[in-house]
Amino acid sequence: MTTIDAPERVDLFGCQFDVVDMPRAVARVEQFLGSGRLHHGCGVNVDQLIKMKDQPEFRDIVEKCDLVTADGAPIVWASRLFGKSLPERVTGIDLFEALLPVAVEKDYTIFFLGTKPDILEVAVKNYKDRHPGLPVGGYHHGYYTEEDEPKIAKEIEESGAQMLFIAISSPKKEEFVDRNREALANVGFVLGVGGSFDIAAGVYRRAPKWVSKIGLEWLFRLVQEPKRMYKRYLIDDPRFVGMLCKQAWHELRHRGNGR
Asked: Are strands 9-12 and 15-18 parallel, antiparallel or unpaired?
């Protein structure tokens, strides 16, 4: 079994983030795949930070994750403001996209879980077209009940998947992994990938890179999905301002104590 040296972690807003850029995140996943046991990755954005604050069970699951990356530009900016600089934003979607060619090159079997059945069919076809030779072990839609989970987990296990990508909202996807750890024990890496499958199927467009760089990807998504995203971006996420103030006060106190 391969020994894995964990990268440095920094504490921001009560969450431990791995200090990794994209190449190092990919390299770490490859280490996971050679270790012989399940590893759970999570890209944490502002919305998930708020969920961690409100839902202790969700926070506990994230704390157990083996790879936690900053999935939001505001988190990276805050890390620099507080002298705990994270190298860059490493989103679940981008890490997923970076791992697909690795799967082709090294023959890592993949399983896709999430979105509606018809959308998933199109997404998987498009991934295969985009990455010839992509070793897809199977896929399953994301519209299931908790009672269906053992059957789905068994399907994933029997597929021989080494990587499982889940396009389901939080905390449902994290809870699925946590409840089914035993059945998923041979999956080397599990990652939540946001709206990747819907984007791949052409249901929604992802924001241009320049929009993401200036931190306005949320606005791009809100315009495309106003009913679904309104509460998240206009009611829940503004609470992040209070979290920023609390973190700033925490940092000032520790500096005043000579740290």
From this structure: antiparallel
Beta pairing class for 110-114 and 189-192: unpaired
Ramachandran bin of 115, using left for φ above 0, alpha for ψ from -120 to 50, beta for the remaining angles:
left
Q: Which of 65, 253, 245 is nearest to 170 (CA)?
A: 65
The answer to whether residues 159 and 135 touch, using CB atoms and an 8 Å cutoff, is: no
pLDDT at position 231: 77
- The three-state secondary structure class of 136 is strand
d(CA 23, CA 108): 18
Domain spans of the chain, in order of start: 9-203
pLDDT one-digit tens code per residue, 118-133: 999 999 999 999 999 9
User: Kindly report the CA angle at 168 between 166 and 170, in degrees rounded to 5?
Assistant: 110
Q: What is the per-residue DSSP string for 9-68?
A: EEEETTEEEE---HHHHHHHHHHHHTTTS--EEEEE-HHHHHHHHH-HHHHHHHHH-SEE
Residues 68-87: tens digit of each pLDDT: 999 989 999 999 988 888 99
Place of tokens 């309104």: 230
Distance CA 93, CA 155 (A): 24
- Secondary structure of residue 166 in the 3-state scheme: strand
- 222 vs 30 pLDDT, higher one: 30
